[in-house]
């Protein structure tokens, strides 16, 4: 089964220009054209002139780009275009060159295959670090990804929960410190020559350690981890920027809230997670 869509034309133009306004990329359109996956009022067509009132139908070309990995998914929200998934620790968002068959994206491909989708091509919209847990938004097909990137990325809202070592000086704050790649090519660090990075936080609970709600105003690699480590309050369990903990086998960081305006329905979609039990336990350790 392919993903197929109908679009009612409202102005005289060409099929390519009309679909570009709907979020179909030039690359995707070329694949549709090459695979004869365009119809005008029920008849196969190419990039022809169209008039208001006509209907363009198009289908997503099938191309297997990621190896499916048979594994369970914790799906919190699903419709015909989107998935919101609770990602576990120790799992990358997308496959890497050293492990191309094991990632959240590989698992989504297998999941969609079970829905009889032919050679699915999902895309991760909101990536998380390998050992960060929580909510990830995925587009089920390239058309959804294109529509989101075209006009709706600004509607995306994300919040995180983290447990940081010790007590912060202020109950609320904004960390504005540029981040760049460290000399070892692995660590990120606060540096004058880095990219602009801004993190807002609010303390939710204090004990021996502190639970904070975090919002990113920029999206740099390891941003939350680097910023709190730069204050002398690294995330508990973060062996890269602080130190490992016997009480948790990954950094205490969860993507806990995710919402966005669906470009298809124009409705806001939202998912939330509770505070993990192990985060609560870390506050007093």
From TrEMBL:
It is an enzyme of class 5 (isomerase). InterPro entries: PsdUridine_synth_cat_dom_sf, PsdUridine_synth_RluC/D, PsdUridine_synth_RsuA/RluA, RluA_PseudoU_synthase. Pfam families: PseudoU_synth_2. One of its GO terms (biological process) is enzyme-directed rRNA pseudouridine synthesis. One of its GO terms (molecular function) is RNA binding. It comes from the Bacteria. Responsible for synthesis of pseudouridine from uracil. This is Pseudouridine synthase. CDD domains: PseudoU_synth_RluA_like (cd02869). Residues 81-230 form the Pseudouridine synthase RsuA/RluA-like domain. It catalyses: a uridine in RNA = a pseudouridine in RNA. Keywords: Isomerase. The keyword Isomerase applies. Belongs to the pseudouridine synthase RluA family. The keyword Nucleotide-binding does not apply. Its EC number is 5.4.99.-. The active site is at residue 129.
